[in-house]
């Protein structure tokens, strides 16, 4: 348990990739603060399970990642109750799909706020604590869309390209302080969010489940396999290790070959 005594905040971690990362960090002994929306009972069950796995404290904070004041308050709370934060995982994200001429302005603002600006605010709040401790790990969940584009996803693609650039910038600013900043860029990850899209797509396009998975969702992934949340989490944990201390400013593709084409 090499993260015993360390604290982590994982945003957007009540399900999917974020929850998998929180579980992996807890399994290595970190005290973890999870964040996101969902059923209160289910969130409490996950929080308790994290505490049992880590042998350390686990907290839930429902900060709205579109609100900077809530972000700063969450980091302050982590510092007061768990210490640090030593590890920040900027994972919160939303999506909206529409051609630009029909794209609602408020949806653009929301995607940029939650997918990009929240990461900037989290780092702005956490970096002083990490510099003081002379140790820190920041991991940003980007996307294959940090490297390539798809039509009708202007806000998401812009935000994820922004996350990749932000990662490089803060990596340079913290390079001499024992702090590393990296991002992971998954392709389609098998999460409840993706699974729940399948029936609607089957109905809308008159396709079978297998056709939706292989010809729509996995069309760009040469392996024709979804990335698993646990695979993303394993890479995030590795980036926290001492062996990864020379890796900073990197963008790790985990997309089944999508961006190799």
- Tell me which CATH architecture of the largest domain applies here: 3-Layer(aba) Sandwich
Number of domains: 2
What's the main sheet like? 7 strands, parallel
- The total beta strand count reads 7
Strand order of the largest sheet: 3-2-1-4-5-6-7
CATH topology of the largest domain: Rossmann fold
CATH hierarchy, class of the largest domain = Alpha Beta
Q: What's the average pLDDT?
A: 97
> Could you spell the SSE succession in H and E letters?
EHEHEHEHEHEHHHHE
Q: In whole angstroms, how far apart are the ends?
A: 38 Å
Please state the CA-atom Rg, rounded to the nearest Å: 18 Å
Q: Which stretches are poorly predicted, pLDDT < 50 over at least 5 residues?
A: none
The CATH homologous superfamily name of the largest domain equals: NAD(P)-binding Rossmann-like Domain
The structural class is alpha/beta
Which outline best applies? globular
Number of helices: 9
InterPro entries: 3-OHbutyrate_DH (IPR011294), NAD(P)-bd_dom_sf (IPR036291), Sc_DH/Rdtase_CS (IPR020904), SDR (IPR050259), SDR_fam (IPR002347)
Keywords: Oxidoreductase
GO molecular function: 3-hydroxybutyrate dehydrogenase activity
Family: Belongs to the short-chain dehydrogenases/reductases (SDR) family.
Top keywords for this entry?
9 helices; Rossmann fold; globular; 2 domains; 7 strands; 261 residues; single chain; 7-stranded parallel β-sheet; 13% strand; alpha/beta
């Amino acid at each position: 348990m090499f993260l015993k005594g360390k604290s982590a905040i994982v945003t957007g971690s009540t399900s999917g990739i974020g929850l998998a990362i929180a579980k992996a960090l807890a399994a290595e002994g970190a005290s973890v603060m999870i964040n996101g929306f969902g059923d209160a009972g289910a969130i409490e069950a996950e929080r308790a399970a994290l505490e049992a796995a880590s042998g350390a404290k686990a907290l839930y904070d429902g900060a709205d990642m579109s609100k900077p004041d809530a972000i700063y308050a969450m980091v302050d709370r982590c510092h007061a109750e768990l210490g640090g934060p030593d590890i920040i995982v900027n994972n919160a994200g939303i999506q909206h799909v529409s051609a630009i001429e029909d794209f609602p302005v408020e949806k653009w603002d929301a995607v940029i706020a939650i997918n990009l600006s929240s990461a900037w605010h989290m780092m702005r709040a956490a970096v002083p604590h990490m510099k003081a401790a002379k140790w820190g790990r920041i991991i940003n969940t980007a996307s294959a869309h940090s490297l390539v584009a798809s039509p009708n996803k202007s806000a998401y693609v812009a935000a994820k390209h922004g996350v990749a650039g932000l990662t490089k910038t803060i990596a340079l600013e913290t390079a001499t302080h024992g702090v590393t900043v990296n991002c992971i860029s998954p392709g389609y990850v098998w999460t409840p969010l993706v699974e729940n899209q399948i029936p609607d797509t089957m109905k809308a396009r008159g396709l079978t489940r297998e056709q939706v998975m292989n010809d729509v969702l996995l069309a760009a992934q040469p392996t024709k396999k979804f990335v698993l949340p646990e695979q993303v989490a394993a890479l995030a944990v590795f980036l926290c290790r001492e062996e990864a201390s020379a890796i900073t400013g990197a963008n790790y593709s985990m997309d089944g070959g999508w961006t190799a084409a």
